[in-house]
């Protein structure tokens, strides 16, 4: 199961206050209105930052362990938390913005999962609402063709972390070692999608789309992430 032990050490490994501030500014720049749904919210860093800016945020993640970690944080009481699959949005609410950030999208490995997410997001947006989703660029496959390795200590655990790519997949492998010699392993698999296919599927779902690379560069160009700003224009569908 993904994000079990990793949920408890996630922030210690990857927390990035500067990146969180960039995501908040991206939301403020492109979404009008204050009602937000964040999908795959993880440990809730961006979620709580948005709530502190005055947004009303419903936040969900497939990992119950991640949601429990998020609930422990200062400011978490401002957020409505739930465990939910982003491909099956069981809510009767409509939102000004729906978010899927931090390459969480890339955990969707099948075409039909992507279509279910896009269609669900469209259905649960208000008119002129925005679905904001980021994902790995194709450049990441080349970056991790040579294995990335990291090792260290986190919360009284030793860890090893490797990232590799093969075909259209990125694999992250974690090994955690406690003081009694027990080992916990987690593997995460992500799929990287061709931007042309993503754009076609978003437009098929009814969205008008703008794309940025690495927050600020207009269009699809060299970089780590693409950001798709997908607007539900009035009168479509």
UniProtKB/TrEMBL annotation:
MF terms (GO), sorted A to Z: methyltransferase activity
Keyword NAD: no
UniProt keyword terms in alphabetical order: Methyltransferase, Transferase
InterPro entries from the UniProt entry: Methyltransf_25 (IPR041698), SAM-dependent_MTases_sf (IPR029063)
SUPFAM superfamilies per record: S-adenosyl-L-methionine-dependent methyltransferases (SSF53335)
Residue ranges constituting the Methyltransferase domain according to the UniProt record: 37-129
One GO term (biological process): methylation
PANTHER family from the UniProt entry: TRANS-ACONITATE 2-METHYLTRANSFERASE-RELATED
Protein name: Class I SAM-dependent methyltransferase
Species this chain originates from: Clostridium innocuum
